[in-house]
Amino acid sequence: xxxxxxxxxxxxxxxxxxxxxxxxxxxxxxxxxxxxxxxxxxxxxxxxxxxxxxxxxxxxxxxxxxxxxxxxxxxxxxxxxxxxxxxxxxxxxxxxxxxxxxxxxxxxxxxxxxxxxxxxxxxxxxxxxxxxxxxxxxxxxxxxxxxxxxxxxxxxxxxxxxxxxxxxxxxxxxxxxxxxxxxxxxxxxxxxxxxxxxxxxxxxxxxxxxxxxxxxxxxxxxxxxxxxxxxxxxxxxxxxxxxxxxxxxxxxxxxxxxxxxxxxxxxxxxxxxxxxxxxxxxxxxxxxxxxxxxxxxxxxxxxxxxxxxxxxxxxxxxxxxxxxxxxxxxxxxxxxxxxxxxxxxxxxxxxxxxxxxxxxxxxxxxxxxxxxxxxxxxxxxxxxxxxxxxxxxxxxxxxxxxxxxxxxxxxxxxxxxxxxxxxxxxxxxxxxxxxxxxxxxxxxxxxxxxxxxxxxxxxxxxxxxxxxxxxxxxxxxxxxxxxxxxxxxxxxxxxxxxxxxxxxxxxxxxxxxxxxxxxxxxxxxxxxxxx
Length: 531
Fold this sequence. Notes:
Blueprint: H1 2-30, E1 32-33, H2 36-42, H3 44-50, H4 70-81, H5 84-109, H6 117-128, H7 131-135, H8 143-165, H9 170-188, H10 193-202, H11 210-243, H12 252-255, H13 275-279, H14 281-287, H15 301-322, H16 332-351, H17 359-376, H18 383-395, H19 397-400, E2 406-407, E3 414-416, E4 426-432, H20 439-443, E5 448-451, H21 460-468, E6 474-479, H22 487-495, E7 499-513, E8 516-527
Parallel strand pairs: 4-5, 4-6
Antiparallel strand pairs: 1-2, 3-7, 6-8, 7-8
């Protein structure tokens, strides 16, 4: 018996080590990440932070210029220390650690059902084979890294539930740790804040007194704010000090920073169009996956989960009034997870609607689906059969996961050669569109970089600040790729600050991301003659 136990533990440890390593290898197989966000701000923001360019440049990456650069600083530092392949491997391994946390969530949530660790491993594997997670392995989107904070916070609560139910003092420390972890994550990526709210409200599902539920929620909320202040506090202060708005340029209708218009900013592209769409949104984005993303996330798991959870909750509600139950009762851990996923989904549905932002819930989907199905299905299907079916459904994602852009590996992550712009006489480089800001660390020049076509509504003060950078020297403009960044539009913006585009000087430069070359047109900019 002891020997068998040791063999099972050894197999478990091998899986927990091997799976993250496999994701590291998978990342290498995919190639150099070239996603749009990387080109727009994941390279520029840390470069700007490390070189104190916050007020030196002017929105070269649009509104994303002012996102917290903490995680990106680590990425840029890694690209300077190791080869691109090593960095890609490390990113894949870090993303793969989600499997380890998922396994322990499965193991401790299902222990009351006496489910074997093999099924917990299977469900954890089904989780990380979800389509959203796979599409971002080895990329700098940070949704997979954000999932680490969310899942670890959930795991700490799951591990603390027995202490919470027994009202032990150590339960408080578990709640504080959980809040601190997800708060740190929310500071790195503010989207995570909605999942901190989901955990906070999920405490009300636990079978303890109302006073204790309130107490645990408040303690958790305070810990979240503490964690948030540790990773975002300094950046909030820095942005507020520079622009008069800690969220600049977002929420500028509240804070009224000088450089942006005081109008609400929100991306409505992926949100449901009506209340009725909200009721059937899993059906809608299953049939029309581009409703929630730029790339098609072809999956059916969300629709299956949605239907089964509705059946499960409807039955619970009916039986609550009848004072009876046709389903077996669930453990507090399972109830907490179901509440967290449902609340997290509702917050996501009403605030974002962007598929990438739901990845941490997607990772838990197979486990919650397993819990609900084993509760409501009365047939000859064993828990093992259900777990295998869920695993097969997830395995298909390996083939159909969308690709956000990859290039063959090269010796350098990025580089560019443009002797004109890199000349010491260059004082200003204007950028016409996005994503162009990745060229700034590649050029590595002391010139100011100013965005002519920012993706937020700027004020007259924006153009006055741009004009204040003008001094004796050379000026250039790098043109974005696409018709909306036409020379006519560029001239219109340059005219605001007394400059014009000299079309006769236009040239082409080659910029390399991995082994892929991207060509950009750039031209000289000159002062208008004043009469």
